[in-house]
């Protein structure tokens, strides 16, 4: 789905020795913000490059500078072959297969590798770092394939495909999306291909940048989706003649999870001023408690928020990291380490897939209640115009159920798997790239499930007329109607309306419509 740039999205991002923010990564990856390296970063890169060049002439072997890689780390490489060593490393590791990875993911990967280069801990030359910034600015996106990373020794194959393009080899897509050889794209923009020197090939491929980039993008999207889940839940509680009394602050405070409190506060604000709610706040209403999918929305949505907060802490630490092996230390050492292992990122990627599935699951249950005449409190079966002749939103719920089933499958963790590689030298790997790939599908699926709930709840709120919904939820209904998504009526071609609502959910317009009445939702 296309995403419009946020109003506060920067047009230019400065990459320095300090960490990038989530917003900066999204701005470059998704919205094409330009990139520049600051002076301190260039000085740091130059300083550690001098260390590498001194060690290149040392009689002692140094991993990645004068030796082979992985299981071949004990093989000494003569000086005359070291440039070839770096080229061979990148060419051999650019071994991905499968469909092309999305442009925003590749751009995030490139930016995050550049951010690590800018720390001055990898030993690359200034010109090599500048080449990454030049490709990003020119909109040149290397072709990276779906499969190839085990999430340990970094995202080797994806990063190697990027590095290959920087050297003028392999295939890329230009800013218009046209496929062409990297050498042709670089020449069009007067970018000189990089001729790799000692240590550089290894420095360009040994990081967790792909999985981290996907984590950052997912966190950005989940913030919008979880708030939209509260909007959808408020519409459902209201449309099903439920109560907002259970969302009272003092009741939520009995279980002091911060995400739960924020979700309940959103629900109270969203339902404020609802004539539908007031209509059954009487002794005639005999229901004691609403179903769990209505009553427990803050608990489920709130736990998902808390999980995102934990994942954001991990992402923040990773954005501040300098991941390479070996790494150049400020005092001139070149040291091997295990920081390239993707476990910290992989674990939270898997955790987020679990909560995405659960939030989608409760959303589908709220939707289903609208369609069952035994549970929807006076609405027509399937919200159909002429039940029997019309099927209403019956099959929209089937679509939800199909997506939720897929999300449950995607919630199975990737990070508990490990297949040894490199002749048993790399005998435990994170599979973090796989965890990130499935989380992207989970986020997309969650948006689709929420969109169908919003679509269904909007029709139900229309059917409660002449009673008026709350101003915030009414604004969401008005948004859909203004976008050509019609209200109750005879059956019609439904798929385009679902897809249009998905767009409104993903780009934040559903949330924004409600916030014009509630103020900023949490």
Description:
GO terms for molecular function: histidine ammonia-lyase activity. The protein has 522 residues and is mainly alpha-helical. The chain is built from 20 helices and nine strands. The protein has two domains: 12-207, Fumarase C, Chain B, domain 1 (Orthogonal Bundle); 215-322 and 357-518, Fumarase C, Chain A, domain 2 (Up-down Bundle). The relative contact order is 0.12. The mean pLDDT is 93.
Low-confidence stretches: none
What value does the average pLDDT take? 93
Strand order of the largest sheet: 4-6-7
What's the order of the H and E elements? EHEHHEHHEEHEEHHHHHHHHEEHHHHHH
Instruction: Tell me the total number of β-strands.
Output: 9
The count of domains is 2
Protein name: Histidine ammonia-lyase
Catalytic activity: L-histidine = trans-urocanate + NH4(+)
Keywords: Histidine metabolism, Lyase
Pathway: Amino-acid degradation; L-histidine degradation into L-glutamate; N-formimidoyl-L-glutamate from L-histidine: step 1/3
Annotate the secondary structure layout.
Layout: E1 12-15, H1 22-31, E2 34-37, H2 39-56, H3 82-93, E3 97-100, H4 103-117, H5 126-138, E4 141-142, E5 145-147, H6 156-166, E6 171-173, E7 179-181, H7 182-188, H8 200-205, H9 209-239, H10 249-253, H11 258-271, H12 275-279, H13 292-295, H14 297-319, E8 327-328, E9 334-335, H15 343-371, H16 394-410, H17 432-463, H18 471-482, H19 495-506, H20 509-518
Parallel strand pairs: 1-2
Antiparallel strand pairs: 3-5, 4-6, 6-7, 8-9
Catalytic activity: L-histidine = trans-urocanate + NH4(+)
Keywords: Histidine metabolism, Lyase
Enzyme class: lyase
């Amino acid at each position: 789905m296309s995403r419009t740039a946020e109003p506060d999205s920067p047009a230019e991002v400065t990459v320095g020795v300090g960490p990038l923010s989530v917003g900066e990564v999204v701005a470059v990856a998704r919205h094409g913000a330009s990139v520049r390296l600051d002076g301190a970063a260039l000085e740091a890169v130059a300083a550690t490059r001098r260390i590498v060049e001194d060690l290149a002439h040392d009689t002692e072997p140094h991993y990645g500078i004068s030796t082979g890689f992985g299981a071949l780390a004990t093989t000494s490489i003569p000086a005359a072959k070291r440039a070839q060593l770096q080229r061979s490393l990148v060419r051999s590791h650019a071994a991905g297969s499968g469909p092309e990875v999305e442009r925003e993911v590749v751009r995030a990967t490139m930016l995050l590798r550049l951010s690590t280069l800018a720390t001055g801990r990898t030993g690359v030359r200034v010109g090599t770092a500048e080449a990454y910034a030049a490709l990003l600015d020119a909109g040149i996106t290397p072709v990276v394939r779906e499969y190839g990373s085990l999430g340990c020794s970094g995202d080797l194959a994806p990063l190697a495909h990027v590095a290959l393009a920087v050297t003028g080899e392999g295939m890329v897509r230009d800013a218009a999306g046209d496929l062409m050889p990297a050498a042709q794209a670089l020449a069009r923009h007067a970018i000189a291909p990089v001729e790799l020197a000692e240590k550089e090939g290894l420095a360009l491929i040994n990081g967790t940048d792909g999985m981290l980039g996907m984590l950052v993008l997912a966190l950005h999207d989940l913030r919008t989706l979880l708030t939209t889940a509260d909007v959808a839940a408020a519409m459902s509680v209201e449309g099903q003649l439920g109560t907002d009394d259970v969302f009272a602050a003092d009741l939520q405070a009995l279980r002091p999870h911060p995400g739960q409190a924020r979700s309940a506060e959103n629900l109270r604000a969203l339902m404020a001023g609802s004539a539908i709610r007031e209509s059954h706040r009487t002794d005639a209403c005999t229901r004691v408690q609403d179903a769990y999918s209505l009553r427990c929305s803050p608990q489920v949505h709130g736990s998902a928020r808390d999980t995102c907060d934990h994942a954001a802490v991990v992402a923040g630490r990773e954005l501040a990291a300098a991941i390479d092996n070996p790494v150049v230390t400020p005092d001139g050492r070149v040291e091997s380490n295990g920081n390239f292992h993707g476990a910290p990122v992989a674990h939270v990627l898997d955790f987020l897939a679990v909560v995405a599935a659960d939030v989608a699951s409760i959303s589908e249950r709220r939707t289903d209640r609208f369609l069952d005449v035994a549970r929807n409190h006076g609405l027509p079966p399937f919200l159909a115009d002429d039940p029997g002749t019309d099927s209403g939103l019956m099959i929209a719920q089937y679509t939800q159920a199909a997506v939720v089933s897929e999300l449950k499958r995607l919630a199975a963790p990737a990070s508990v798997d490990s297949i040894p590689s490199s002749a048993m030298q790399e005998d435990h790997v994170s599979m973090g790239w796989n965890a990130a790939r499935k989380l992207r599908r989970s986020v997309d699926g969650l948006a689709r499930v929420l969109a169908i709930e919003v679509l269904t709840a909007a029709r139900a709120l229309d059917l409660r007329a002449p009673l008026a919904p709350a101003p915030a939820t009414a604004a969401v209904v008005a948004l859909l109607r203004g976008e050509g998504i019609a209200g109750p009526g005879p059956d019609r071609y439904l798929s385009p309306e679902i897809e249009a609502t998905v767009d409104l959910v993903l780009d934040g317009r559903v949330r924004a419509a409600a916030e014009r009445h509630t103020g900023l939702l949490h």
